User: Fold this.
Amino acid sequence: MSKSPSIAISPSVAEYFGSVVDDALRLRNVQASAAASQYVVGVLCDFARPHVEAESPFSKPLTFQLRDAMEAPFAERFRRLRTLGDNVLYAVGFFGGHIELRGIDKKYVMHVGSAAYSNAAAMLHAPGGAGKFDVLDELAVKFKEFVDVLTEVAEGTLAQGARDERGVVKLYERWLRTGSSRIAEELGARGIIPTRAAEGLN
Assistant:
């Protein structure tokens, strides 16, 4: 998925994600530059309005995607690396529980996302590059922290939407996958106390 800065985003969408990202950074106690915060908002806006040609970040093994991006012609390499980083960041942040259920090593997935951002940033540091791009460096170094921020956004959004039985069931299903304390609190506020039994989650 291309992340061109020329994409027109509705101010209301950008403002909404700006607010929830600020809240998530505070709740997860993540220190982020204003530029990195805005970048994450841009990623969320892009995935809120995905391109027609967008495909799952797991459409083929991440190892191959990283290799193909690294071996792409120079003019294409940066875009592919940054897109891979964005895709992994969003996928792990919003669907980390699903990833683990599929037997995929979540730590390795995050390593690929971090490496994609790091290599994209390195291209801008290199002779002939556009100059230092601290945002991608920051995302690479703090990849796990930014995954936590997107997880907070996902869980907060899910909690806000849990206004009927179906929504509460979705909350409970997410808790079964993740064991999230945030989701447990939201369930508790609705009179449901999830507990861990000796042989699993109840």
Q: What stands out?
A: Residues 99 and 106 are 7 Å apart (CA to CA). DSSP finds nine helices and two strands in the chain. Residues 1-9, 198-202 have pLDDT under 50 and may be disordered.
